[in-house]
User: Fold Mobilization protein from Psychrosphaera saromensis.
Amino acid sequence: MKSPLTELEKKERLQRAKNKFQLIRRQLNDKKTNKHKLLALVQELASQRPEVTVQILKKWIDTSR
Assistant:
């Protein structure tokens, strides 16, 4: 039979779970930030070179099917 967890073990497990959630949140925020940076870069490129934009869109449409 398993012995009940001590108060210290409970606190440690709770802290590990909190740390894990913080890490997951940070990773999600990093992904969102990178996505927004990439989008801004593509928008800048599109505004400077419209002919490239058409090529990129064609390629993107073909690969997303």
Residues 7-63 form one domain. The two ends are 55 Å apart (CA to CA). The CA atoms of residues 6 and 52 lie 63 Å apart.
